[in-house]
Amino acid sequence: MPDKRPLYKIIIDDLKDKIEVGLYAPEAQLPTEVELAEQYGVSRITSKRALIELEREGLIYRKRGSGSYVKQPDDSDVIPYNGVQNSNSIVSMILPYMATNEFEYIRAATDYLDAKGYYLSIHNSNWSKDKEKELLLKLSKSGLSGIILYPLSTISNVDMVNAISSNGYPIVTMDQYFDSLNVSSVVSDNYTGGYLAASKLIELGHERIAFISSVSIEFRSSVRDRYLGYCQALKDSRIPIDSEWVYTDFYRDVNEKNSKTFYQSLLAKLLSQKVTAIQAEHDILAGELLRNALDAGISIPKQLSIVGFDDHETSRHAEIPITTIAQNYYELGRSAAELIVAGIENKDSERRRIKVPVRLIERESTGVQPNREDIILF
Q1: 44-56 and 33-40 helices cross at what angle (nearest 10)?
Q2: Which segments of 198-304 are extended strands (E)?
Q3: N or C terminus of the chain: which is more exposed, having fewer CB within 10 Å?
Q4: The dihedral sign for the CA sequence 157, 215, 97, 328
Q5: How far apart are CA 301 and CA 366, in angstroms?
Q6: What is the DSSP annotation of 96-129?
Q7: Which of 253, 256, 263 is nearest to 294 (CA)?
Q8: Integer distance in angstroms from the first to the last C-alpha of the chain?
Q9: What is the dihedral of CA 102, 144, 187, 291, to 10 degrees?
Q10: Which residues contact 2 (CB under 8 A, 6 or more apart)?
Q11: In sequence order, what are the residues at sequence separation of 6 or more whose Cβ sits closer than 8 angstroms to the Cβ of residue 30?
């Protein structure tokens, strides 16, 4: 049966569910109107109405120039952590942001922890290095059993993570890993994902393939491994790795006002170098590139192929659905919970790194290498 609810009501009900299960804790910041519009494939007017209705219901409050935040419950005596008073049975999960994928992490971790007699509390660092550090310090000293950390990056708060681990406190990282630290981790097989994406483009005849990431290669282990997989696929096919086709670390330069100019300039630069395919670090970025390519009159995939990573819902609902690498978010969350319980119940357990398999999903954004007459020159 098709969902007959108005679009703004779908957003409202979804956000209410996330607030109820703790995905958005009190004082957590909600996605912006623009982010909600992109996430649900609606107009900004629709997403704005949803936030206004939530504010009228007293569930959120809005700060001018800052955003929307979950309101504290009226009852100041509400007990955190799902009502559990014994902190010895609580595991905390720190996430850098709240989106659809995080539901799977949380659902999987909760399923495993419930079966083992533990409870899960959720905390949002909101892409802030300082907030992540504050949470790590507070939670590790609060008597909780352990921490599952989805790091902002693997070059931030290394000292804090190392101190916590060295002091014998159970901590596990999810999505990323710290190479030099004695900390267990569970990650997607990003190297294989990067290799699969590049190999698919090579199979389609592409040789001039760009790798695009809004953050630097070293900022996250996940990005680094995807890039190295891309490089290995090119090497195995005897295709030179051209550093001019690798464009990274520009997230500080892009904002709502200049994004169209920025991305279309980037596309023009790549096409002037006869690049025929782009491997994007994640699906949101792939979607931005695809939209701006279409706006510039570039035919996808006839003149340019684009591959993303994550199998984010935006990749499925893009104007031209995006070929991507799918991660198993449920297994990531479940394995992280398994590792943290092992660390809690066996303090001498050795460091482990679990790699969760990924898979290629081919959609309409990729096609064969364009004919010479179809290549756009700038």
Answers
A1: 120
A2: 209-213, 246-248, 277-280
A3: N
A4: negative
A5: 5
A6: S---HHHHHHHHHHHHHHHHTT-EEEEEE-TT-H
A7: 263
A8: 48
A9: 30
A10: none
A11: 15, 24, 36, 51, 60, 67, 68, 69, 70, 98
* Predicted local distance difference test score (pLDDT) of residue 76: 35
Contacts of 14 (CB under 8 A, 6+ apart): 40
pTM comes to 0.77
When the candidates are 3.20.20.70, 3.40.50.2300, 3.40.630.30, 1.10.3720.10, the CATH number that belongs to 190-323+362-374 is 3.40.50.2300
Task: Please give the pLDDT value at position 285.
Answer: 95
DSSP secondary structure code for residue 258 in this structure: T
The residues of the chain scoring below 50 in pLDDT are 1, 75-85, 378
CATH number assigned to the domain covering 81-182+328-356: 3.40.50.2300
Q: Which CATH class is domain 7-70?
A: mainly alpha
* Nearest to 374, CA basis, from 323, 298, 322: 298
Structure tokens at 180: 């030099």
Tokens 């409870």, residue? 119
332 touches 174 (CB < 8 A): yes
